[in-house]
Amino acid sequence: MSPEPQKGRAPSIRDVARLADVSHQTVSRVLNGHPSIRDETRQRVLDAMEALKYRPNRAARALVTSRSRTIGVLSATTGEYGPSSSIAAIEDAAREAGYFVNTANLAASTPAAIVDALKHLVLQDVEGLIVMAPQVRVFDVLAGMAMDIPYVSLQSTGQSDHRALAVDQIAGARAATQHLIDLGHHEIVHLAGPQDWIEAEARMRGFLDAIIDADLRTHPPILGDWTADFGYYAGRELSRYRDFSAVFAANDLMAIGLMHAFRDAGLDVPHDVSVVGFDDIPVAQHVSPPLTTVHQEFREVGRRAVALLLGELRGEPVSQSEEIVPALVVRGSSGPVHAALVHY
Amino acid sequence: MSPEPQKGRAPSIRDVARLADVSHQTVSRVLNGHPSIRDETRQRVLDAMEALKYRPNRAARALVTSRSRTIGVLSATTGEYGPSSSIAAIEDAAREAGYFVNTANLAASTPAAIVDALKHLVLQDVEGLIVMAPQVRVFDVLAGMAMDIPYVSLQSTGQSDHRALAVDQIAGARAATQHLIDLGHHEIVHLAGPQDWIEAEARMRGFLDAIIDADLRTHPPILGDWTADFGYYAGRELSRYRDFSAVFAANDLMAIGLMHAFRDAGLDVPHDVSVVGFDDIPVAQHVSPPLTTVHQEFREVGRRAVALLLGELRGEPVSQSEEIVPALVVRGSSGPVHAALVHY
DNA sequence: CTTTTCCATGTGAACGTGAACATCCGAACG
DNA sequence: CGTTCGGATGTTCACGTTCACATGGAAAAG
Q1: Mean pLDDT to the nearest integer, B226-255
Q2: Where is the signal peptide (chains A, B) (predicted)?
Q3: How far is the CA of A267 from the CAs of A217, A336, A340, in angstroms?
Q4: What is the pTM of this model?
């Protein structure tokens, strides 16, 4: 037999108090882990909560504490592996910390769309923000809206802005480029991401650093949009010129599209052209040839972002953990330069 | 000069009321679009809200209405394109309808993990649930928890359970299989998904239906886990037997892994083996050979799920929209059967 | 033995909003 | 011209929780 045939209304803290024969405040204390509660009393309250199937009312709590226990994620993904994994990891980590996550997706990267998404998150009363979107623009908009919400950015240029997570994209890109140089390539093209993404900018920087250090000719980078389709398009254009022996693409999807175009153009990867990507998405090792790329720990990045943000929310000294340096994974898409092509 | 130097507390409905020289209730009426408000009054209130930069307090509203305006998404993804896109679309649609979305990700598909995720969503006071996870188990758990939250499932077996979204996965799988049969294949293997996913079950059903209708030999299906790595593993095993001329994989990732394994084993796709996938993820057309697959409209599915759920929340008659029938996309990975292999 | 302190608990108020009911006023109706 | 009605607005209360403060008693300190 059930203890009480709930009469419409959900049991509140006061119902529990009545059943446990204490004041509602004592129940509240049990709920919040207040130290000054006798064990026996606490147990009685817990039993009563169990009996009534009591569940705290989040809205009431949020109202009085003016804390929503919710963090917002501003993303701009259409389902790509990287951001999606990070978001999933963010949710896991937040859940573990007792926080909720609300994601707003950018339909476009126009200021209007950004304002829209931010307004939605603000309406939701998020306590903090994790930004995984064209950061440059987002920061502009954020500044313009004069909001004082703590935020954390998912990727950085390596210069430790305290609110940015330190993933050394520059080092990763540099390693990828150096790998090509070590293989003997002198004419390397960079297929970059949209330049309003900090990641894209950082990867280009790393690429240029390596090129300049090796005193090689710099080809003008191609500005892409992260998609495999664009990679294919770029590959078609590139194969008309063939004044290069390797391409470093700013992400795997573009690299895969690129390889497709080269294949269609009769170019062999890696014999005629070497290709290196960035991200190490799960299919990267299964395409033909398996893609040499830079491995990113997306889940780890998500976890750290949450840790960083929650730390800031608690007012803790921002303990920047060690930088994550993404690791180069050499597979079949990159190989030694082929003499015939070097002298174009 | 700013109207009022906000003294700590955010402006409330009463502050607006004072400034507009009306009662707080009038402000509330303006907020909720009550009809009986004089235009002049409404304007005065709106001006006051603007001047104070008033923003309604969600918690207070939720407390008094006991409606959170939040829907929950139970997902089980590690960043795959399909579910991720659907989730993004769900967020967009929900936002447009003034709802918030809270996603809980399943760490594992164990009952404990499911209970965990559901509890989190319930704590968040979600008004309804969209399930994109091993539905079979989730439904069991849901039943066991005796929760009366309306929910909608993202994919169905085709039999219109009123709470399930009608994507005719069976028809899609059938079309894929029939395509192989039409090409002359008689020995077709199915690389299935985990059987506690309704999608996996449906795709296998469609496969079997086509096979049986064509009176072909049924190979025992291989039960996979949706990942490319598993596809590769399965491909390695399969290439040891070679008593088949085509494989229908339950999703593209597994299909791509499969092709990789066949390549490694010296089998040519599609000459020696035809491969068909399911989903049409963005890389599908860029792998080598481009993958024949069944195209799914993930975003549309997400949108419809929201529409269905919100309809149910409003108590509207469940207007099941037309079924979505995914479309076969023929590319290079499938071709006519090669005689030498038919007689294995 | 008195005073202080601290622990365990209770009391009342406040958070910002919407619902129910009350009130006022002018128009329509008889 | 009185009565009724409904539109426009105001008043009061409730939602479920936490916070600030109060209280009583026992232990510690003098």
Answers
A1: 96
A2: none
A3: 22, 15, 13
A4: 0.90
A118 shares a domain with A21: no
pLDDT at A222 over 50: yes
Task: Give the closest of B77, B91, B227 to A282, CB-based.
Answer: B227
Instruction: Give how many domains chain A has, as a whole number.
Output: 3
Q: Which domain holds residue A43?
A: 13-56
Tell me which chain A residues have a C-beta less than 8 angstroms from the C-beta of B81.
79-81, 84
Among residues A78, A77, A79, A121, which one has the least CA distance to residue A100? A121
pLDDT tens digits for range B300-319: 999 999 998 998 888 776 66
| Other beta carbons within 10 Å of B314 | 7
Task: Judge if B174 and B289 occupy the same domain.
Answer: yes
Closest nucleotide to A55 by C1' from CA: D16
CA distance A39 to B245: 70
Q: Are residues A161 and A178 in the same domain?
A: no
Are A40 and A158 in a shared domain? no
Does A5 reside within a domain?
Answer: no
What DSSP state is assigned to residue B15? H
Looking up residue B281, the CATH number of its domain turns out to be 3.40.50.2300
Nearest-by-Cβ selection for A60 from B63, B84, B105: B63
B95 and B232 housed in the same domain: no
Residue A259 near chain B (CB below 8 Å): yes
> What number of helices (H) and strands (E) belong to chain B?
13, 10
How many A×B Cβ pairs under 8 Å? 149
Nearest-by-Cβ selection for B88 from A62, A77, A259: A77
Inter-chain contact A104–B125, Cβ cutoff 8 Å? no
| Over residues B73-93, mean pLDDT | 93
- d(CA B173, nearest CA chain A) in Å: 23
Do B283 and A283 lie within an 8 Å CB cutoff? yes
Report the alpha-carbon distance of residue A299 to residue A304 in Å, rounded.
9
Instruction: Please check whether residues B198 and B292 belong to one and the same domain.
Output: yes
State which amino acid sits at residue A184: G
Q: Position of tokens 């998912």?
A: A154
Q: Are residues A178 and A269 in the same domain?
A: yes
Quick: pLDDT tens for B178-213. Answer: 999 999 999 999 999 998 888 899 999 999 999 999
Q: Are residues B224 and B308 in the same domain?
A: no
How far apart are the C-alpha atoms of A146 and B148, rounded to whole Å?
A: 42
10 Å CB burial of residue A54 (0-12, 13-18, 19+) is: buried
Q: What is the Cα–Cα distance from B94 to B74, expressed in whole angstroms?
A: 15
